[in-house]
Amino acid sequence: MSTSRSPSEGERPLRGQFTTTHWSVVVEAGQHDSPTAAQALEQLCKKYWYPLYVYVRRKGYSVHEAEDLTQEFFAKLLTKKYLTVADRNRGKFRSFLLGSLEHFLAREWNRSHAQKRGGGWILVSPDGLKPEDRYRLEGTDALTPERIFDRRWAMTVLEQAMNRLREECATEGKADLFERVRDCLSGERAEVSYSQLASDVGMSEGALKVTVHRLRRRFGELIRAEITQTVTTEQEKEEELQHLLAVLRS
After folding, report:
1. By C-alpha distance, which of 155, 227, 163 is closest to 3?
2. Residue 93, Cα to own-chain centre: how many angstroms?
3. DSSP H helical segments within the chain, as ranges?
């Protein structure tokens, strides 16, 4: 996985312009009504629904309790009941989310007022699995709720970046090529050799390696862009990137 800091056409507009990122828009809105902030917050919530669902499940709640708790928590976020304490000093959206959820679980959940499960969102991930189906795939290891949240957060960032890269390739008419080389982009060893892949896609081995290198670099840029949407400063972006890499190595 590439994390090169050299700017690209896709990354330049994001540098030094944190007031236009999703989390910064939400923070700036504060207690005021803002359609733009509401849309940005909803996009962030949809991305991070599953990491928090896993956190709640690992806390010992049942399937239905975890679904209701997670939905009710995000419902409160979307109505800005927690945004009164969001400010630039709180920095990262990841940290804000986890702190707010802990507060919610400790003090604000009332089962008699649980909203109807689902809350209007379709609780199915892009891979077609429902939250609990995905949770069963997590295994029975001894990860703490905090560590499993971090792991799912990191994987969500990678998935979002990979989805954006897939869309870019599709726009350029390279959807088939992307699917062929996708396993090479994370830096892990592909099951098929470069020579075999090159033969399959009708390229020379050298040309294929150049293409994979460029896609890896773009993947790294999109990872950084994804992180940028959840912080308010350049320093926080670097901290989140390092945290993501540490989580993936652990």
Report:
1. 227
2. 11
3. 22-29, 35-58, 63-78, 93-103, 131-136, 145-171, 175-181, 194-201, 205-228, 234-249
45 occurs within a structural domain: yes
Instruction: Measure the CA–CA gap between 24 and 44, rounded to whole angstroms.
Output: 12
Cβ atoms < 10 Å from Cβ of 52: 24
Asked if 80 and 34 count as a contact pair (C-beta separation under 8 A), the reply is no
Question: Which domain covers residue 86, as residue numbers?
Answer: 17-111+144-249
Percentage of residues in the chain with pLDDT exceeding 70?
67
Residue type (1 letter), 112: S
Cα–Cα dist 114/51, whole Å: 20
169 in a domain, yes or no? yes
**What is the reported pTM?**
0.74
On whether residue 71 sits in a domain, the answer given is: yes
Encoded tokens for 219:
């993947």
Axis-axis angle for helices 205-228, 194-201 (nearest 10): 100
Phi, psi of 247 (to 5 degrees): -65, -40
State how far the Cα of 65 lies from the Cα of 193, in Å rounded to an integer.
47
Residues of the chain with pLDDT under 50: 1-19, 112-118, 122-124, 126
Gap between the Cα atoms of 26 and 215, Å rounded: 31
Instruction: Print the SS3 string covering 183-205.
Output: HHCCCCCCCCCHHHHHHHHCCCH
Judge whether 139 lies within some domain.
Answer: no
Number of domains in the chain: 1
